[in-house]
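hey m, so remember when u said the tokens were messed up on ur end? i reran from scratch. heres the input so u can diff it against urs
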Amino acid sequence: MDTSGLRSSERTGATNGAETAQAAGADVGAAGGPTAAQLRRFIKSRAYVPLHELRRRFELNGDLDEVCQIDGPDGARIFVGLPPRESKFLADLARDGDIGLELSNDPRSPIVVGVYPIRPVSRG
């Protein structure tokens, strides 16, 4: 079969992004994005998740410079490079003590570069 006229995705049989994400276990909610529970489950399953990985995993393809302001756990103003809906989910998870937010150190600014789970300490 001559494949010279096909794009690389057609030659390899690759599917579109939504099918790929669902096949990888990243279900998307009815509103076209992940639910808060899906974000929490994904973050809790890893030691650290860079923000670009959340964008890729859940296909959060917003504008190039899309940044939303949230209130951090201590009331500080923090910026997140995600769409407004998912930014609110991260703010709620951080406020509830489920996740921690890693902020940029170079330059020092209140923008989230990654998230990590906060595991409960067992006493016993």
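this time it looks ok to me. The two ends are 65 Å apart (CA to CA). if urs says something different then somethings off w ur setup not the seq
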